[in-house]
Design goal:
about 350 residues; alpha/beta; Quinone Oxidoreductase, Chain A, domain 1; Rossmann fold; 2 domains; seven-stranded mixed sheet; six-stranded parallel sheet; 20 strands; globular
Length: about 350
């Protein structure tokens, strides 16, 4: 079975276009008709800079890893045509030392949608039809709002971050940087029983969204936090979601002795890292990267209404307008999460 598909392809810095391709389904895996996709920060980096970190675009690559769709054909009889599915963009090898211990986000041969880490690159999900491993499909009810369900991937990132902290129930939580991921962290912390959630950001607009997701207190980044530094810090858990070096230093200052800091945002090295403070306060600083089983949990949470991400929804564009959509999504004065419709 061969189908024509239109795909949103990035070719380099400020170079994106919609091209025609062919998809041939031969009975293995699941053929999905993509209905909607969310634009992520990494999509913006590939568009704005032609790279993410040290991984530059070397050949045309389909963007997108936050996608949902409907089943056309599947090798699993339980996935009937028309079944709505959220697609887990992670395809781990299942054989390396990390996969065998279920640490699949650390897979040595991970094929993650829309990533230039490998050469050839791994195509993403911003296309009308895509064949995926059937295990990547997580079904959800047709009555649910597609605008909500497309948040499954970023929500899974936040669930994993909270799990890295060992949970937040009845804890005081600080979140530095409330872009889309930071705001979803607010929602996860609220739904997970955090006692207090204090947020900081340079953007009043972002802080307004954090309020809507359940923040207890919101502060501009240059606001005084002396009260939170007293007695070796006020917060049990801090999430640094901006990637800015000064933000991590602030987290170190306001996290209580023997507390935990989870580094979520991707940023550069810190020239003068306050090592002695970390040692003296016996702080735990842990990284968090993508997710494992949390993707299925994210679909469940969205389906049940445990968290409502719609305050972050900033608008939608036809996939044919991908250039305009990426430009709008990159305007942080106006946009939070922008979605493409296929």
């Amino acid at each position: 079975m061969t189908l024509s598909t239109h795909s949103c392809v990035v070719k380099g810095k400020q170079q994106v276009e919609v091209i025609s391709q062919r998809v041939t389904y031969q009975g293995e895996g699941t053929l999905v008709k993509i209905s909607r996709g969310g634009i992520c920060g990494s999509d913006l980096h590939y568009y704005q800079h032609g790279k993410v970190g040290n991984f530059a675009i070397k050949m045309p690559m389909i963007l997108g890893h936050e996608v949902i769709g409907t089943v056309e054909k599947s090798d699993n009889s339980q996935l009937k045509p028309g079944q709505k599915v959220a697609i887990n963009p992670s395809k781990a090898c299942g054989e390396c030392q990390y996969c065998l211990t279920e640490d699949t986000n650390q897979c040595l041969a991970m094929r993650f949608f829309g990533s230039a880490m490998m050469n050839p690159h791994v195509d993403g999900g911003f296309t009308q039809y895509k064949i995926v491993d059937t295990a990547q499909c997580v079904p959800f009810d047709a009555s649910l709002d597609d605008r909500i369900m497309v948040f499954a991937e970023p929500l899974a990132v936040c669930l994993h971050a909270v799990n890295q902290a060992g949970g937040v129930a009845d804890k005081r939580v600080f979140i530095s940087g409330v872009g889309p991921i930071g705001c979803l962290l607010v929602g996860v912390a609220k739904a997970s029983g955090a006692r207090e959630i204090v947020c900081s950001d340079i953007s009043p607009r972002a802080l307004t969204l954090a309020d809507k997701l359940g923040a207890s207190v919101t502060l501009l980044a240059n606001d005084e936090m002396t009260a939170y530094r007293a007695q070796k810090g006020a917060f049990d858990v801090s999430f640094e979601a901006s990637g800015h070096p000064s933000a991590l230093t602030r987290c170190i200052d306001v996290t209580r002795a023997r507390g935990c800091i989870v580094q979520v945002g991707m940023g550069g090295d810190i020239p003068q890292f306050p090592m002695m403070t970390v040692i003296a306060k016996e702080l735990r600083i842990v990284g968090t990267f993508r997710f494992t089983h949390e993707f299925t949990t994210a679909v469940d949470w969205l389906a049940s209404g445990k968290i409502n991400p719609l305050p972050l929804f900033s608008g939608e564009y036809s996939y044919r307008e991908v250039d305009e959509a990426l430009q709008f999504a990159g305007d942080k004065q106006q946009a939070s999460k922008v979605q493409l419709v296929f």
